[in-house]
Design a protein that fits this description.
- By secondary structure, the protein is α/β, with parallel strands linked by helices.
- It folds into 3 domains: 3-86, Four Helix Bundle (Hemerythrin (Met), subunit A) (Up-down Bundle); 101-284, P-loop containing nucleotide triphosphate hydrolases (Rossmann fold), CATH 3.40.50.300; 302-442, Signal recognition particle, SRP54 subunit, M-domain (434 Repressor (Amino-terminal Domain), Orthogonal Bundle).
- The chain contains 22 helices and 8 strands.
- The protein has helices at residues 3-17, 24-40, 45-59, 62-65, 70-86, 113-126, 141-154, 167-180, 198-211, 226-239, 256-265, 286-293, 299-309, 312-323, 329-341, 345-350, 356-361, 364-367, 370-380, 384-388, 395-405, 409-430; strands at residues 101-106, 131-136, 157-159, 185-190, 215-221, 243-247, 269-273, 281-283.
- Helix 5 (70-86) crosses helix 12, helix 8 runs parallel beside helix 9 (198-211) and helix 21 (395-405) packs across helix 22 (409-430).
- The longest helix has 22 residues, at 409-430.
Length: 443
Amino acid sequence: MFEALSDKLTSVFSRFQNKGRITEKDLEEGLKEVRLALLEADVNFRVTRKFIDDVKARSIGKDVLESISPGQQIIKIVHEEMTSILGTESSTLSGGNQTPNVLMLVGLQGSGKTTTAAKLSLNLKRSGNKVMMIAADLRRPAAIDQLETLGKQLDISVYSDRSETDPIKLVQNGIAKAKHVEATWVLVDTGGRLHIDSELMRELQDIKKSLNPSETLMVVDSMTGQDAISSAQGFHDSIELTGLIMTKLDGDARGGAALSISQMTNLPIKFIGTGEKTDALEAFHPERMASRILGMGDVLTLVERAQEAFDHKQMQNLEQKMRKSSLTLEDFLQQIQQIQKMGSVGQILDMVPGFSSISRKLSTEDADGKGLKKVEAIIYSMTPAERNRPDIIKGSRRRRIATGSGTTPYDVNQLLNQFKQMQRMMKQISSGKIPRNLAGLFR
């Protein structure tokens, strides 16, 4: 996500930070590179021009260029202006006075609308809501099958009726069923097309009029670039959207559509899709996204993910074991499984300030989490006794574990050595003897 743009911007601003004094010529040259980087990332040229003009206007002058830390001041201005482009403030779902609240999802075919309906339903369910989905895409039977399958996987009820040909009657019947089961939110997955046409818009206008939804969100494929903006504007002009959901951001290294769309349509981005899994949907926070793009990380999202992924009782138990230096490979396995819930190694490092460049240097294997899966396979191939007492693992046991996990004895050895180092480090920390290379972290 924004990989190419982030690399170029980080390079420009690192040069600013390394200079004790920045002239207007330095600023001009740097902003010229920023302009090219934004245009190459497929950011709309009007948005790019306004962004550069605003940054330049705020940066030129004694208060910035002649300050003690001009580089940091300029980066602060860039961060604020980029946040402004992305939407200035976080936008949440707003429920109306009706019960249940109705959320209407619209979009073109291939944008990920049906999958997003399931992801958003799971998000609402985890927030304590009772959710129902309505399969109203009657022109594409596969969409009904897909939504029903996802509903079963997530234990979320789906209303569908293959005998009904009128989408308005279908959604009205679905709303009646939702009221009966006392659902708090209903998500309506409407029909899509390969392109915008008058028939599609009339159908959506009629459905919206009958529903009077609290939210009308368009699911937009970020990989379609500037076409995403024109599609969003077309839908907004016809049915008045309340917001956008950007999908496939994990597959778009440029990200220009996400940077342009809110400014061009005057619509807030409410959620972003960051992967294929059903939990890979995040609430959109402009300030946090601006920080990620500029290589500053996103600590708040990282903390939120950790709170969702980690079991508090397990963490307390782990802390006690660490204090007593009695950590086992069984504990290690549990922590790997918790980390995997937070996303890939690359995604996690992207959210740690200063580590975004490291995440891009990871091999494809590590970025996809295959390195963690290898460790998991090795530990699963051990007996309970071996997990609790890894010192008993010698030659024959090592070969058996390697065969069982589809790895090599070298891989098993490497894991055992790393685990021993971790045990020694934990023992030193628990006894107050902090290793020299880590001393700075504990001051």
